[in-house]
Amino acid sequence: MIRSRVFRAVAASLTIAALSLTAACGSAPAEKKAAAAENGKTVTPGKLTIATGLPAYTPWVMNNKPESGEGFEAELSYKLAAKMGYKKSDVKWVRTTFDSAIAPGAKDWDMNIQQFSITPERKKAVDFSPVYYRPYQAIVVRKDSKYANAKSISELKDAQIGAMVGTISYTLAVKTLKKDIKTYNDNAALAQAVDSNQVDAMVVAVPIASNIVNSGQVKNGKVLGAIPGTEDPEGMAIVLPKGSSVTAPLTKAMNELLKDGTVKKLQDKWLSKYTTGVPMLKK
């Protein structure tokens, strides 16, 4: 009788233990499913695929290696991923052109970060995160240029000026400088045009201008100054596919990083070196 009661007690304990183990094992997949639902449907389940340019430029991405987390946009991307519940190993980087990222249609990435400015036209084709930076535009010239000592934009009225096609730099150059701005497919080609005297000056965001000069992309180059009235009116934001379920969780993560000062700290860490000391040109 005693032996029977002992057997029943042991059996009951084993049953409870088995049920507990089953529940514990079952909770992990359930938690993963819940996290996936909260963070939206990604291209690869459980992973966050982030796109950037090829090449990706300093100071946004250092040494063209976004996976290092070095550079303003690279580190910001990992901070956002962490806020959304992804480990660094869960982040996958891919490369795209600037134009293809903002074109309508299906994408093979979850978010794309390469200094995209928000415009009403682009909003029709893609989603945007909250704004993470608002740069001024600047002018780069050669030190031996006849415009090298200009203090105002009015002194550049006869200069041949270039900008990257389809960018806010081009739009603001046309608005503030002159109508006939020569266009180039990327900033590398644009810098080469200034370096080889094909154009007298180029217009890019202030941090990009400083890096182009510091890295010698324009030999004997100088940042002439920032252009008044060219602070990005809408600001830079991350691009997502139109109607993406990742837009809402990314928006939440970005707003949290803006609110707690993380974005400002990253701006100071990575961009201040390239923006401090740049003079504002007169009109």
UniProtKB/TrEMBL annotation:
Keyword Transmembrane applies: no
Q: Which CDD domains match?
A: PBP2_peptides_like
Query: What Pfam families does the annotation carry?
Result: SBP_bac_3 (PF00497)
> Gene3D superfamilies in the record, alphabetically?
Periplasmic binding protein-like II (3.40.190.10)
UniProt keyword annotation of 4Fe-4S present: no
- This one is known as ABC transporter substrate-binding protein
Species the sequence originates in: Aeriscardovia aeriphila
**Solute-binding protein family 3/N-terminal domain: residues covered:** 47-274
The domain of life for this entry's organism is Bacteria
The protein's matches in PROSITE patterns, at most eight in alphabetical order, are given as:
PROKAR_LIPOPROTEIN (PS51257)
- Name the SUPFAM superfamilies for this protein: Periplasmic binding protein-like II
Keyword list (alphabetical) reads: Signal
Cross-referenced SMART domains: PBPb (SM00062)
Give start-end of the signal peptide: 1-23
